[in-house]
Write a structure and sequence with these properties.
Elements (H helix, E strand, L loop, with lengths): L2 H61 L4 H43 L14 H56 L6 H32 L8 E4 H19 L2 E6 L6 E4 L1 H18 L6 E9 L2 E8 L21 H7 L5 H11 L3 E7 L3 E9 L7
Parallel strand pairs: 2-4
Antiparallel strand pairs: 1-3, 4-5, 5-7, 6-7
Helix pairs in contact: 1-2, 2-3, 3-4, 4-8, 6-8
């Protein structure tokens, strides 16, 4: 017998052994299950039988006079039957009925019905088991809801990506066809077409970069270079950079540092810069082109470091503030198309802040502007 045949023979015998063992276990499990239900039905049947027997014995004892010895024996027998009846009732209420409820609950879970709860009236080990079962069912129900939400979000994500990619790709294709077919002849028109193609290409690259970053955040696969950083000099350098950019464009920019002392903050420099850049970038996109103004303020609130970024833009409607951090959400979709926004900037900023143990708060007044507050915990102190 060669090695190949020996391998198949050994594999066959191992499979037979595993199948036999699993089949034997299932048979034993089914036998135990049937024995339990037989015992349960027997106890439920014996309880009224014992009760009728006791009543009959009491009736016979008083109906037909007998001597004291027989009376004593009858009394002992009746007492034993009463004790047995009480014990059977106790077993039925405290053990067999809860176990039967557990069995039915497990069957519902196996069917995929996680919205099941067992009413617990016992305070023994079986009662603790029922409590654990209810906790498990609640957790499974919660996970099922999260799973459905994830699937819905995934479908929406695919639909949004398809829509956001289709528009610029269609535009690029149309302009390329026009150039290829010789529709455009003048150099000025050709330059305009190429500028539109370049603009759409940049938008697609930004969208792909944001999608890649967001997917890594969602899967917790983004690497963070965390370090304890002195917040005052970090913000001074960062705000000086933004101030220079605003002055070059003729915009107003004001930075105020209200920290009484320097505090360490555990963070990734690049990611926090990205958060602030996304929020300030939004203010520039949606703010007034001629008179844009931005005020930033750094301060401490309890064990937290806060940075206010306030603009003089159009503001955000109150009913839309809670949605601005959703993926691909745009307050004004028609206007946002012209700004070539991916709709992921604020969503990414929120995820990055939460990865640092922080958060973003927003207040806004229509016609006056919005204020984004970035909140980070001070290192070595309690986090939010």
């Amino acid at each position: 017998m060669n090695r190949h045949e020996r391998f198949h023979r050994d594999h066959y015998h191992r499979f037979r052994h595993e199948f036999y063992c699993s089949h034997k276990y299932r048979m034993r499990h089914n036998d135990w299950h049937r024995d339990f239900h037989r015992s349960h039905r027997a106890l439920k049947f014996l309880r009224p039988v014992f009760l009728l027997l006791i009543i009959l014995l009491i009736y016979l004892m008083f109906k037909f006079p007998i001597n004291k010895v027989l009376t004593f024996l009858f009394g002992v027998f009746i007492l034993s039957q009463i004790v047995q009846l009480v014990w059977i009732t106790h077993l039925e209420k405290r053990i067999f009925k809860p176990i039967s409820q557990l069995h039915n609950g497990v069957k519902e879970i196996a069917k995929g019905n996680f919205d099941v709860t067992i009413n617990n009236t016992t305070f023994n080990e079986i009662g603790f088991l029922i409590d654990s079962f209810n906790e498990m069912a609640a957790k499974l129900q919660e996970n099922e809801i999260l799973k459905r939400e994830y699937e819905e979000n995934w479908k929406m994500l695919i639909a949004n990506i398809s829509h956001d990619l289709k528009t610029p790709i269609t535009s690029i294709g149309g302009y390329i066809d026009a150039i290829h077919e010789g529709v455009v002849t003048s150099p000025e028109k050709m330059d305009q077409y190429l500028q539109v193609i370049r603009k759409n290409t940049i938008y697609i690259n930004h969208l792909i970069d944001d999608l890649f970053l967001f997917s890594k955040l969602a899967m917790h696969q983004l690497d963070f270079q965390m370090e304890s950083i002195s917040i005052k000099p970090f913000m001074e350098d960062l705000m000086a950079e933004f101030s220079f950019e605003f002055q070059e464009k003729g915009f107003d920019f004001c930075y105020t540092d209200d920290l009484e002392e320097n505090y360490p903050v555990l963070m990734d420099r690049q990611r926090i810069y990205q958060v602030i850049h996304n929020i300030i970038g939004n203010s520039v996109k949606y703010g007034p082109a001629a008179s844009l103004g931005l005020k930033t303020r750094l301060y401490r609130k309890e064990a937290l470091i806060c940075l206010d970024i306030q603009d003089n833009g159009p503001g955000i409607p109150e009913d839309k503030i809670s949605k601005i951090f959703d993926r691909f959400y745009r307050i004004d979709s028609e206007r946002t198309k012209d700004l070539m926004s991916t709709g992921l900037g604020l969503s990414i900023a929120k995820e990055l802040m939460e990865a640092h143990g922080g958060k973003i708060q927003v207040t806004s007044v229509l016609g006056e502007g919005s204020c984004f507050t970035l909140i980070l915990p001070i290192d070595n102190e309690e986090r939010i």
